[in-house]
Amino acid sequence: MAAAAADPPAAAPVRRKQVVTAFIQRPADGNVLVVLRSDKVGTYKRYWGAVSGGVEPGDRSLVERCRQEILEEVGFAADQVQLVHSGRPLIVDDGRLHFNIHPFLFRLNQGDAKVQLNWENIDTSWVPPAGVRQLRAVPLLAETLERLLLEDDSAIKYLAEDRQHGAAELAVYAVQALAQEADRLARQAAASSSTETEGAGAAALEAIRNFGWHLACCRPQMVPIANSVAAVLASAHDDLRSRADAFAVPLGEVCGVVQQHAAAEQRRLAGAAAQLRQQVLGLLRDGMTLMTCSLSSTVLAAVKEAAAGGMKLRAIVCESRPLCEGVTLAAQWAEAGVDVVLITDAQAALFVGQADLVLVGADAITEAAAVNKAGSHLLALAAHAAGMPVYVAADTSKLSPGPLASIAFPGQQQEEQEEEPAAEEVTAAWGRPLPAGVRVRNLYFEPVPLSLLTGLVTEQGRLEPAAIAAAVQERQQQYRTSFQLP
Fold it and tell me: Which parts of the sequence belong to the Nudix hydrolase domain (predicted)?
């Protein structure tokens, strides 16, 4: 008997070089800086490109590598350019060379700043973004830039600047914005009669993914934003792949599929909020005193519902400096008939012994901690020392595999992930100027170790550590699918 044929050897995985590409935009006219590569560089000689460089093993972050390349190649120091945002990574394969490109957009702070070239480039030009495609350029330069530019960034700005709404509410807004972007692309194509152009559907999906990336990255601490956007894009991706010819789906159909899955995610979020509220109601008892800090929309609604149903409750509320959203929560509970005591955050340990339980929300749940407004950890420590139960209420959309940018390139530290608004938020209450030589810190969020919690309550009930870990891993894979990460 002849021997069975051996399976062919598995192809060796392609090793791709990690590269940062930095576009610098001039605010006055919106033009971007491109450089003409010299004969002394190793690749793409005499081709136009953006400032770029390979990621080195000792680099602390991708942004740090960008700033170093900008200084070396065009002479702009760190104070001359401002990071705007990152873009969705992309793969560049030209048949010989293989790269993972990490795009970044910077804004030039000084309009008359002079470019100073080093040996890597021989010429520069400030070109309109649309003109990049006309250049004799390195592979996919125009596509790289397109991942950074937004035709309408009002939704991203709103999400980035909002300090009044919780993570769940902002997730709903982000999903609505994604659906509106799909609708805008469909209407724009219909107006220009380009809906049937070959590849228009695939291009629209790429544009929606790029927009989704910016939605997902603009508030890293508000995990439900990224999770809900990723859920919509992953579902739309799977739906479109199931079509007879996934690569030829018309633009209108692509945009319609995204809108359908956005609507489904909005329904899921609303259902999860109602289910979580019922779970929280199960923790409350007539005559109970609860203590909280910050403003969780779920905790707020559950207590109001309990009070409306005749339950007599007392609440101790930390004001939650610096914006004092605890005051807003206290006012709404008092109006609903709850007996409310409002305290400064520093008094938490003094009052926690009067409570029957501590109940807070969370903006993110990792495998190790619940992330919530600064002050939550101290409250949990005080409750733990006093033997008081501590519960965190959060729906499963807050389970976090980490910032999206960290998943796109593991092992790199991410800059500007902590939310630290202006010091004036803190000093405004002082009634006097900031003393000379004093630096104010204003970090918004902190982790509360799961070991300090009596329970994590979700819309599915209490979630144990093993289930949290499994859900986090599943979410990470969803990120990779939705944004087609290398």
Answer: 15-149
Q: Is 44 left (phi over 0), alpha (psi -120 to 50) or beta?
A: left
Query: Which structure tokens are listed for 146?
Result: 């397109």
Three-class SS of residue 477?
helix
Distance CA 359, CA 357 (A): 6
The residue segments making up the domain with residue 192 are 154-275
- Same domain for 360 and 294? yes
Helix (H) or strand (E) holding 131: none
User: Same structural domain for residues 137 and 21?
Assistant: yes
Q: How far apart are CA 313 and CA 290, in angstroms?
A: 8
**Count of domains for the chain:** 3
Residue among 277, 229, 236 at smallest CA distance from 457: 277
Q: What is the dihedral of CA 79, 84, 88, 93, to 10 degrees?
A: -40
State how beta strands 445-449 and 455-458 pair: unpaired
Output the six-digit token pair for 450.
């799961």
Would you state the structure tokens that stand for residue 232, as one six-digit string?
């919509």
Question: Based on the domain organization, do 256 and 297 belong to the same domain?
Answer: no
Whether pLDDT at 149 is above 90: yes
Contacts 24+ apart (CB under 8 A), 365-368: 365/223, 365/392, 365/394, 365/398, 365/399, 365/400, 365/456, 365/468, 366/400, 366/402, 366/447, 366/472, 367/465, 367/468, 367/469, 367/472, 368/447, 368/449, 368/450
Rg of the chain over Cα atoms, rounded to whole angstroms, equals 26
- What pLDDT sits at residue 12? 52
On whether the CB atoms of residues 82 and 110 are closer than 8 A, the answer is no
Residues 264 and 216 in one domain: yes
Give the tens place of pLDDT for each residue, 441-461. Answer: 999 999 999 999 999 999 999
> How many whole angstroms separate alpha carbon 259 and alpha carbon 249?
15
Give the separation between CA 391 and CA 19, rounded to whole angstroms: 44
> Rounded to two decimals, what is the model's pTM?
0.83
Of the three residues 275, 299, 334, the one that is the final residue of a domain is 275
- How does pLDDT run across 91-139, given as a tens digit for each residue? 999 888 899 999 999 999 987 789 999 999 999 999 999 999 999 999 9
Task: For residues 21 and 37, give the distance between their C-alpha atoms in angstroms, rounded to a whole number.
Answer: 14
Q: Is 353 found in the same domain as 390?
A: yes
